[in-house]
Amino acid sequence: MIALFSLTWMQVRLWQNDYVLFSHAIQVVPQNHRAHMLMGLAFLRDGRTEEGFSHLRDALRLRPDLPDNYVAVGNLLLKHGRTAEARDLFQSGLRVDPGMWYAHSNLGNILLSEGNAADAIRHLREAVRLRPDDPKVLSGLGDACAATGQIQEAMSLYERALRLNPAMPEVHYNLGLLLAARGRIDESIAHLREVRDCLRVRAGA
After folding, report:
1. pTM of the model as a whole
2. What is the largest CA-CA distance in the chain?
3. What's the DSSP call for residue 97?
4. Closest by CA position to 155, among listed 172, 130, 137, 134
5. pLDDT per residue over 168-203, tens digit each?
6. Dihedral sign for Cα atoms in the order 107, 112, 115, 121
């Protein structure tokens, strides 16, 4: 019992460092995609970005059949401002599983920001088809429709989003602007007031 306790205690001391633990796992089983994923996350946590994404890409290479991993790494790339790389991973994930609504939504938003409105709307419509009751997905398609002059559909999508979640100041603002442009001033003002109220609640005022 004493020897077993001593060995366990030594291992805990050795593995208090994440890098040592995950490096050991990779050395023992080089094809361990989970260890590469965890090592990558540890590097990102500590600001070692390039090393982090190198291990995350190794994880994707080792298990290209896991679509959620593409989305997870794509989201991390987005957080680091690496939009083009994120776009490529969302596309790769959708080739494995075309039914991932969140990948369609993220990809659509990226494509819209890049000026590729036609492909953006195609992906955002698919996201809405797969997730019709998600207010963020609805408002994302609304943004794309508004950007391409499909104003009536944009307004309808914003209204649907707000019925599901009235506490979305950005959506109230966008809908208020569209209503004002159509001369529906009273309705526009009502939504712009909602922007103020939502922001107050968000700030805890």
Report:
1. 0.81
2. 82
3. -
4. 172
5. 999 999 999 999 999 999 999 999 999 999 998 888
6. positive
